[in-house]
Amino acid sequence: MERVRLWIGKAREGFKVVGRPVVTLSYAQSIDGCLTVRRGQPYAISGEESLKVTHTLRTLHDAIVVGVGTVLADNPRLNVRFAEGPDPRPVVLDSHLRIPLDSKLLAQSENLPWVACGPSADEEKWVELERRKVRLLNCRPNREKQIDLADLLAQLYQSGIRSVMVEGGAGVVTSFLEAQLVDLAVITVAPIWLGGLRVVERELPDEARLGLENPQSGWFGKDLVLWGAVRRRVE
Is the bond into 33 cis (omega within 30 degrees of 0)? Predict the structure, then answer.
């Protein structure tokens, strides 16, 4: 555990990104590269020891980013429960403001989520979320009419966020990789096959075929955890 903690701290110091936070990609997958059996149905992949690694990582980042699909499927709190340290700020990517008003994130008395949305956001939901003191980040859309991640990261940086942990789901992971906005990665591989929803759900363009530079690894219970800086592959 301490190896990962020390590496994250040192690696972040080595990244000199301009105008945006350092981005760490972190998720758990099966041997065959799946996040779950089917979309919208959560599946507990991580064992107890590797889950502690994930929660330790949360304490080391200012914010944690997930898509609204994860909120709809898992209804997570996105806080720290299996490690000692501060909770990161939850940030939900939600172009149309589909986040349920009775979700656990909105029920929290402290550390309310920031919700990133776009021009097509539901106006009534916008008013209600503002009434509840939820901060809304109005982001420009990209070519696919989804949230432009570079714009989101710039807004987070302007708000004092210097480190972001991206946890998913598959669409969010794929989009960050496509945009080449991942600096570090910590990936848990559990010894199971699922034959389900793949982590990277579509083919990446040539310029986004990334890899880990000088990767390190360790066993945490039955799970293998890989970590390293993300670099473009050179063929």
Answer: no
- Smallest CA-to-CA distance from 124 within 96, 156, 154, 103 is with 96
Per-residue pLDDT, 16: 73
CATH number at residue 205: 3.40.430.10
Three-state DSSP at 6 gives helix
| Per-residue pLDDT tens over the stretch 68-78 | 999 999 999 99
Q: Is the pLDDT of residue 89 over 90?
A: yes
Instruction: Give the count of domains, the chain.
Output: 1
Run of H or E including 193: none
Residue 38 burial (CB < 10 Å; 0-12/13-18/19+)? exposed
pTM above 0.90, yes or no: yes
CB 220 within 8 A of CB 49: yes
Q: pLDDT exceeding 90 applies to what percent of the chain?
A: 78
Q: Can you give the length of the chain in residues?
A: 235
Distances (CA, A) of 69 to 65, 94, 95, 121, 229: 12, 8, 11, 15, 27
In this structure, the strands spanning 34-36 and 223-232 are: unpaired
Which domain, by its residues, includes 9?
Answer: 2-232
CA terminus-to-terminus distance, the chain: 33
